Amino acid sequence: MFEHDEILDQRIEQARADRARALLALQAVASETGVPAASMQSRGRVGREVRRARCLAFYLCHTEYGWPLYRVGAAFGRDRTTIGIACREVEDMRDDPGVDRLLERIGRGLAAITGMAAAA
């Protein structure tokens, strides 16, 4: 019985830590793009700029933290398929050197803050 409680406590703590890292990614994207983090967290329909910024945050959690899509989705309260679509869109955006540099810059910052090495 106690082992079950410990496992549950570990999962809850992991979910809290993931949510904090997801919020960090949102704030980093907000800082670089000028799109408010609160707007990116909206559950309703958002404009193109906000949606693009939110996709960048999803993508960074997937690539920089090395999280699988379901874990990114859980941290943001989204379905893994939503995250997968967003990540594919960002991959397409990386053809633009400016977007690529932006992602590299934010990724380096997230790695420095969290102490996590960027996923290879």
Query: CATH class, anyone?
Result: Mainly Alpha
- Which structural category do the helix and sheet elements fall into? mainly alpha
Low-confidence stretches: none
Count of spatially separate domains: 1
Work out the helicity level.
Answer: over 70%
Mean pLDDT: 93
Question: In total, how many beta strands?
Answer: 0
Radius of gyration: 15 Å
CATH-derived topology = Chromosomal Replication Initiator Protein Dnaa, Chain: A
Largest sheet: none
Give the helix tally. Answer: 6
Q: For this structure, what is the CATH homologous superfamily?
A: DnaA protein, C-terminal DNA-binding domain
How large is the share of residues in beta strands? under 5%
What can you see in these coordinates?
With 120 residues, this protein is mainly alpha-helical. The chain has a single domain, classed as DnaA protein, C-terminal DNA-binding domain (Chromosomal Replication Initiator Protein Dnaa, Chain: A), CATH 1.10.1750. The chain is built from six helices and no strands. The termini are far apart.
Brief descriptors of the model:
Chromosomal Replication Initiator Protein Dnaa, Chain: A; 6 helices; 120 residues; mainly alpha
Please render the helix and strand layout as text.
Layout: H1 2-33, H2 37-40, H3 48-64, H4 69-76, H5 80-93, H6 97-114
Helix pairs in contact: 1-3, 1-4, 1-6, 3-5, 4-5
Summary?
The chain is mostly helical. It has helices spanning about 1-35, 35-40, 50-65, 70-75, 80-95, 95-115. The chain has one domain: Chromosomal Replication Initiator Protein Dnaa, Chain: A.
